[in-house]
Amino acid sequence: MTTPKVKPILCALEVQLTLLEEIRVAQTTDPQLEQIREETLVGKVPGFIIHEDGTIRFHNRVCVPVVDALKKKMLDKGHNTPYSIHPRGISCIRTYSRHSNGVT
Fold it and tell me: Kind of pairing, strands 92-94 and 56-58?
């Protein structure tokens, strides 16, 4: 029995942060959010929490710092997905407008 020849291949793996991780990292560079983080730790700002993933949230909504590249990435991701998601996460409706000539 002969073994087939195996050709070597070169593979590369690139690790990228998720959008939520990028927001968490960007929160640490925003002076206003850093002040909110400090005040949240001592219970001075009602409504704000430090979530278990490390993000600062207001009434369980992620606080996004003012970073143009990050905001553009969020908008692109929202506009380029075939789903439309309700802000409270209770409704997920398939958007057919891009896939079926605007007929829903």
Answer: unpaired
pLDDT tens digits for range 27-61: 999 999 999 999 999 999 999 999 999 999 999 89
Integer Cα distance of 64 and 32 in angstroms: 11
Give the contacts of 64 (CB within 8 A, at least 6 positions apart): 23, 26, 70, 71, 74
From first CA to last CA, the distance across the chain in angstroms is 59
Contact between 55 and 23 under an 8 Å Cβ cutoff? The reply is yes
d(CA 95, CA 6): 45
pLDDT digits (tens, 9 = 90+) for 7-17: 887 777 666 67
